[in-house]
């Protein structure tokens, strides 16, 4: 996807997810979650091309500027939106699907040491509430909603509500929106 097309898509995702968004220029200039993702893309490209130190230095500069830490080895899909963002941490082996929304204070963190897959995988359309911690190589199915401050250490099937400490998953009720509108990317 072309560079400018991707930026337009990111701005549209912000408008879709944030009812307070007033315009493309404001979003591009002041949304730290968007800036962190743009920095991540540059650093991820460096990481993939073997410039690991440069990628890590770039990710730390982005963290200092935005308050959001995204490891350059993580894999983020399209139209990921980080709302408010301060305190978000996304670990090295995390995988984030398309159309995912993360609120402030979210951690997609590792559990235990060693090599290999240590961080979560989020399917498409997942929403993760403020302060939630998703730890270890768990898989969160598409369309899940993770409640604020939940501590998730087990897999969750698609279209679940995941709440509590420790978090448990239950099926979403058809037709109930849980206070969230389904994204409309035709704005």
From TrEMBL:
Acyltransferase found in the keyword field: yes
Keywords: Acyltransferase, Amino-acid biosynthesis, Cysteine biosynthesis, Transferase
GO molecular function: serine O-acetyltransferase activity
Catalytic activity annotation: L-serine + acetyl-CoA = O-acetyl-L-serine + CoA
Class of the enzyme per the UniProt entry, highest EC level: transferase
Biological process per Gene Ontology, one example term: cysteine biosynthetic process from serine
CDD domains, per database record: LbH_SAT
Phosphoprotein keyword on record: no
InterPro entries (UniProt xref): Hexapep (IPR001451), LbH_SAT (IPR045304), Ser_AcTrfase_N_sf (IPR042122), Ser_O-AcTrfase (IPR005881), Serine_acetyltransferase (IPR053376), Trimer_LpxA-like_sf (IPR011004)
Family: Belongs to the transferase hexapeptide repeat family.
EC number assigned by the record: 2.3.1.30
Gene3D superfamilies, sorted: Hexapeptide repeat proteins, serine acetyltransferase, domain 1
SUPFAM superfamilies the record matches: Trimeric LpxA-like enzymes (SSF51161)
GO cellular component: cytoplasm
A Pfam short name: Hexapep
Protein name per its UniProtKB record: Serine acetyltransferase
